[in-house]
Specification:
Number of strands: 9
Strand order of the largest sheet: 3-5-6-7-8-9
CATH superfamily: Metal-dependent hydrolases
Shape: globular
Order of helices and strands: EHEEHEEHEHEHEHHEHH
Bound molecules: fe (ii) ion
């Protein structure tokens, strides 16, 4: 499997605290059946030069640690951008990184963001030449209408949900809504969004099994492997 959303760089953001935790998280990934990881430290519009350096150093360190876990475990660099017009401007200016240097960008919004805010941000990303992936859709309060999610996808957005949703973290109603989206082909990625090796750890193996049981192996392969492969290569995902 491939994970496209995680916070495993040691001592960089609110994810892994140190190298020991990063190593434990990398073992979790490997044990869950993940062999490629796009690491996505948080980025906000006011991120300093020093933070960017910390990310780059942390990534090199994490690559060394991954090699200790398995020669087959590969890391790629991306980031998770908290949307604002200033953050987009820094991305356009090449100060922030896209997913493995492709046109794909992982974007998050404040929990209270409304549909219109998100729609206008998606238009901005697309018109600037990017392919936005909306991070953890299940977390936003506005969700609840399939047609709105469909509209975002039609504008050019791709949808990522966290594996914790599949495992029931957000309750029955939200899970049922996300299941509707999966049936309509409106979810493109399930990701770990792992922050540590305890409460917000890697749980991709069990959620893969759950999706394969409910929606079939083809859908599970798309949501955990094939679409992610396209992100790494910078190829278009068919919708
Ligand atoms: Fe995240």
């Amino acid at each position: 499997m491939i994970d496209i959303h995680s916070h495993i760089l040691p001592g960089v953001d609110d994810g892994s605290k140190d190298e020991n935790m990063t190593l434990r998280m990398l073992y979790q990934f490997s044990n869950e059946g993940v062999d490629k990881i796009i690491v996505t430290p948080h980025f906000r519009h006011d991120q300093s030069e020093a933070y960017l350096d910390k990310v780059k150093q942390g990534f090199l360190k994490a690559q060394d640690l991954a090699a200790q876990v398995s020669p087959d475990l590969k890391l790629y660099l991306g980031c998770e951008i908290m949307y604002s017009s200033k953050a987009l401007a820094r991305l356009v200016n090449d100060e922030f990184m896209t997913m493995n240097g492709t046109d794909y960008v992982l974007v998050e919004f404040p929990v209270l963001a409304q549909f219109n805010d998100i729609a206008s941000a998606i238009r901005d990303f697309v018109s600037s030449g990017y392919i936005p992936i909306i991070a953890h859709l299940e977390r936003y309060q506005f969700i609840g209408k399939v047609e709105q999610v469909h509209a975002l996808v039609k504008m050019g957005a791709y949808i990522q949900i966290n594996s914790s949703l599949i495992l029931g973290k957000y309750g029955f109603t939200r899970k049922r809504f996300i299941h509707k989206l999966i049936k309509r082909g409106l979810v493109h990625f399930v990701a770990s969004d792992a922050h540590n090796d305890e409460k917000r750890k890697v749980t991709l193996g069990s959620s893969y099994k759950s999706v394969a049981r409910r929606f079939g192996k083809e859908t599970a392969a798309d949501l955990f492997i094939r679409n992610q492969e396209k992100v790494i290569k910078g190829e278009k995902i068919g919708v």
